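Example 3.2
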Amino acid sequence: MTTRHYSHLFSCLHDQPAPIGHLGRGVHHSVFRSTQWRTIDGDHLRAPRIHDFAIIWDEDHDERVICVAEHLHMEGLLWPVVFIGERKGVVTLLLDYMAGPEVFADESVWIDRIREVASHADDTDDWQVEIGMYQRLVEIDEVSQTNPVRIIPEDLARVVPYLQAIDVLWLLGDREDAYGMAAA
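Structure, written as tokens:
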């Protein structure tokens, strides 16, 4: 089975073209690969790293959100993004919890810039932008700091495990090995 081609900037690793299961209003997802020139802390790198992220679609599978992801990438703002959601004219970005306090500060210049770029990325629409965070749990008894805002209109007890399941399968975010391949 071939995956759908959405972008000239990203590779689509996995695609669910239509709703699966009973979560939210027709939730499904696709996983994309990009390259990034920053560490998760935002420091510049000499060589690119692989960065995988997922798009959480609602029932209408509005592909205009790809334009938002492309603009964020071209502006160098995609590096901490793990999930992008689109629902009813709202783009929700879930950033990696490890991105650091300067990204999540109340008056973050980075957050202001990402909102500006994301809200005007598509010429046909001005998107509202919500920003939350995603924390990969490392230990079983760890309490999640994930704040998915409204990426999926459903109870947190169902949303967070769904996001975690995608992450478990695809190891989203920054790959410390430069090309996403296992170190020798």
